[in-house]
From TrEMBL, chain A:
Domain FAD-binding FR-type: residue ranges: 8-109
Pfam families: FAD_binding_6 (PF00970), NAD_binding_1 (PF00175)
Keywords annotated in UniProt: 2Fe-2S, Iron, Iron-sulfur, Metal-binding
Any coiled-coil regions, as ranges: none
Recorded superkingdom: Bacteria
The protein's required cofactors: FAD
Name of the protein described by the UniProt record: Oxidoreductase
GO molecular function: 2 iron, 2 sulfur cluster binding; oxidoreductase activity
Entry-linked CDD domains: FNR_iron_sulfur_binding_3
Organism whose genome encodes this protein: Saccharothrix coeruleofusca
TrEMBL record, chain B:
Domain of life: Bacteria
Name recorded for this polypeptide: Molybdopterin-binding protein
Location of the region described as Disordered in the Swiss-Prot/TrEMBL record: 1-30
Domain annotation Oxidoreductase molybdopterin-binding: ranges: 37-182
UniProt cross-references to SUPFAM superfamilies, sorted A to Z: Oxidoreductase molybdopterin-binding domain
A Pfam family: Oxidored_molyb
Amino acid sequence: MVAPARTGPWQQATVLEVRSETPTAKTFRLGLSRPAPHLPGQHYVLRLTAPDGYRAQRSYSVASAPGRAEIDLTVELLPGGEVSEFLHEVVEPGDELEVRGPLGGYFAWDGERPALGVAGGSGVVPLMSMLRHAREIGRPELVRLVVSVRSPAALYYRDELPGPQTTLVYTRTAPPGSPRPAGRLTADDLAPAVEDRDVFVCGTPAFCDTATGHLLGLGVPAGRIRVERFGPSG
Amino acid sequence: MAITRGFTRRGGGERDPRLPPGQHDAGDDWPVLHAEATPSIDTDRWTFTIDGLVDTPTTWTWDEIRALPPDHYEGDIHCVTTWSKFGMRFDGVSVDTLLEAAGPQDDAAFVLARSHTGYTTNLPIEDITDGRAWVVWDVDGAPLTDVHGGPARLLVPHLYFWKSAKWVSGLTLLAEDEQGFWERNGYHDRGDPWLEQRYQGD
């Protein structure tokens, strides 16, 4: 395992671009004033400060590959979410945001050992960083993804995600002509992808428990499964 | 202080004095955050062991630990991911009761808490003594579920909640501090929410 980069201090980042992934998800490209190398899977903390000193902070996974002075954070809009609503409704290119990272040395891929990512919904964000990195270093076969998503309209990174490394599992609405009917993730969806890979599972707690249950049932040792549970943290 | 353009406090009211800096009230939610597969541990094979720098290394079975004098905590908990929950009640046994049986030696200054999953977290011994830490099995009157660390977890509510090891299996008393799982991965060695000790260097 590559040692995780030392967590840097709080730094100012400039919003370079805001892109809609779905009706409820936006990607914020941030230019870092103090670039720090991250490992695919790691996250940053983003902090908002009001004029009276009040602060709110949340953690967001990096979606972009490492090796640049900018990072992409994809943020799902949570109803009533103090930080996600502000980011979606107020923030625009040119704004300054305070961030700190990279963080999380455990749910992080070293870029060397074959990896399987299993994502539910917005859990695809840190795994997209892994897929992008594998493609950029010319070793796309190192990463396989199984991504569970409600419908085609809810798919993040739709121009980049599909490909030979990716299995898309639609849970409510499958696209026309899809060979797999819509339905929840099953062990059969995961079986062809497991091979001899380290596994990274990311999604809601319920999704993670279902997915890890299938993986353990397929004989994957618990010690090879790393889990990142996305909570309703606003 | 870098003001964020357009950001203001919601509601405009006073901040709840129970909230440490940078935290928010999770209300009725109790988010679940751990990095391993959720285990399911039978009370038949659950044990709790205190070893290391103690006079009498001691292991309790489920029935044995439940027979110890009960104790409880009522109050708030704070997770480093910025949620806090107010007015929780946890029932279990005080770590003081367990340490009394094992007899800490004079040079024991730190503990490494261990879980049945292999998870670890480190604490200074002062943070788990004098009524500041418990091994608990009930929350708000009901048994702890698997996802919240059942059948029993450590409870150290004055520190960020990753110190309150789920599925706790024991404490090892040490002379020197030895980092646990999140601490090796960049999180603070002590984790006091009121000092906002989230990451190494805070």
